[in-house]
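Now for one protein, fold included:
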Amino acid sequence: MQPAELRNLERVLNAHGSDVSTIYCVITALIQQLKETQGEEVVEAAFKKAMANASGPRPMNSAAPSGGNIRRLFGKT
């Protein structure tokens, strides 16, 4: 790869990393708010739905969800 291509790749990766970090912050805040306002049983139901969705069918060539990451988001590890 040429230096310009490497810089462009770095910019793209950093932008996606920022997007992922932002989404993580929002999701963890929503889980915390849900737990505080609706209770643990509602959070547990959301966790089960997330795990079921993660194990469902995916379009070809799409990234697979990580059950481990879902467990971590919900504080299960």
